[in-house]
Amino acid sequence: MPNNSINHARIVSLIWGIADDVLRDLYVRGKYRDVILPFTVLRRLDSVLEPTRDAVSEMKKMLDGAGIAGQDGSLRKAAGQDFYNTSGFTLKDLRSSANATRLRQNFEAYLDGFSPNVQEIIDNFEFRNQLPRLTKADALGALIEKFLSPDLDLSPAGLDNHGMGTVFEELVRRFNEENNEEAGEHWTPRDAVRLMTRLMFEPIANAIPSGTYRLYDGAMGTGGMLTVAEETLKDLTMPVGKKVSTHLYGQEINAETYAIAKADLILKGEGHAADNIKGGPEYSTLSNDAFAGQEFDFMLSNPPYGKSWKTDLDRLGGPKNVIDPRFIVTHDGDSDYSLVTRSSDGQLMFLANLISKMKTGTMLGSRIASVHNGSSLFTGDAGQGESNIRRWIIENDWLEAIVALPLKMFYNTGIATYVWVISNRKEERRKGKVQLIDATEWFTPLRKNLGEKGVEVSATDADRVLAALRAFDEAGDPDHSKVFDGIDFGYSKITVERPLRIAGVDPTRVYKPAEIKLLKEEGVRDETAPPIIKKALPFAATPDPLHGRYEAIVDGRTRVVEYEPDIELRDTEQVPLTEPAGDYADGIEAFFRREVTPYAPDAWIDEKNTKIGYEISFTRHFYKPVPMRTLTEIQADIRALEAETEDLIAEIAGEE
After folding, report:
1. Residue 94: how many CB atoms within 10 A of its CB?
2. Secondary structure of 369-401 as H, E, C letters
3. pLDDT at 656
4. Share above pLDDT 90 across residues of the chain, in percent, rounded to a whole number
5. HEC states along 300-334?
6. Chain centre distance of CA 497
7. pLDDT of 441 above 90
8. CA 371 to the chain's CA centroid
9. What's the predicted TM-score (pTM) here?
10. Would you state the pLDDT for residue 3?
11. How far apart are CA 317 and CA 321, in angstroms?
12. Does the keyword Methyltransferase apply (predicted)?
């Protein structure tokens, strides 16, 4: 293990030891992080600011004396950092307070002196709420003393920004593992994140020019995806001499998780990036877009699966009144094409949010990697939000690939998960195509489960996934990689009607709605009765039995009529968009003539209710049938069971 890794591990162990030493009888183990994480942040910031404390104090006095209100920029400059503290205290000063009450007062003044960006971290950690308990148990002084130990050097001299970030992330990881039931909500396993970032960057690595790039995560959790993406991009571009800089942007609704993300960036010396992330309970991405109208080069997310977003939907105006341009778009001639999903699961809404922020005026456009569960592939009927999102993405030719991940990849669930790779600048060979990669067998088992997580995608496993992606239609491994036309996933959902037949009706007259209503309530259905005519079309109308327009004698004249449908006989069929037309006008008619007409000659298609849907079935495309056992094998098993039974009977008989 490299020396820096040894040092990082030692520091993490020391901090973990403080938690056990000071908090054991005050907090349950899962709540140690409520104190230790913010205290770690404070100790690092305190040591970074110590050399410029006097300069900040002098600047504060001067600004106050001059009556200047907007002081943040000047105080940052005086501190030489993107944060500062104007209280006049350091943790070393506080250590000398012998009285617990006085210590708490001074400590609160110390907290109040931090810059607004640090205040936001403290507030979202809800750290001030811990002070009464810590003071009552006389533990606040012990914590300060432990964090000031010479063995625990969190100063820039002992630990650079990258190292501090590593230590903090390791603490977060360990605390998340202590809380497996929560980990998956806010923290994506690092192996999954690395695979996602590689899927996002590597296919275009050679085409990325020197420049500045904007990275965004709309469900950023603790911010790990953004920081790993930043590292991956630099690792790919630096060796070939490209100069790349990044700006990170993200949004997160959970207060503590947001505080961790913001703190992590500040601890890494990326205070300016910390200003570009937004979070807290008031910042729900779906109903309060903090980056409306902005575009980003690279985006990735692990949105919540199967989680109700009804509160957000209500804030947006309800299912029928959403006007947010992220979710009501123009597509296929429909200016009110709705991407609004059912309120029970908003995961695809997060994907629509990412797509709304794609760059359209640059050579590279935008690339997205977003992880979802299996329901994102097939839930939602034709015309509903989930299906509409899939249709919108595929018909705009943005879907590059979907990768099925191994089971048991995440901390709080063992369900199937899939990475969607989206691009609005597909390479020529991929245009109109979608690649499906089944990587469920490419994993490395963990020696010990971490919650539900029992496997990981190692670097070697990820290499196999990337190799399949690069190979595209030349992969030569149909068990794991297949390429389809986008239209292959589409279908027309048709409504098949049959006429209402009531005994005793007159086949030569048109019935009024009220009469039809009465017949439905009081009449007797009879499949041999003539159909009920509900409407006679103008004399110029032409018959079209396929779509419910028939010829009939009405009042002694031949008319084109429409029959009243029998809702009890109504049915629907899914017709692939690729259905061949054959000798008919289109694939729908060919399907109807083959699959419906032979069994229901009086049926027709209600064309106004025909809707287009899209669904993707990995199971169907990668199904591997289990070979049936041979008759010889079955007979051998039967003989073995018979022999075993005879032995048992003999044993019982012998005992008697």
Report:
1. 22
2. EEEEECHHHHCCCCCCHHHHHHHHHHHCCCEEE
3. 59
4. 72
5. EECCCCCCCCHHHHHHCCCCCCCCCCCCEEEECCE
6. 39
7. yes
8. 5
9. 0.86
10. 53
11. 5
12. yes
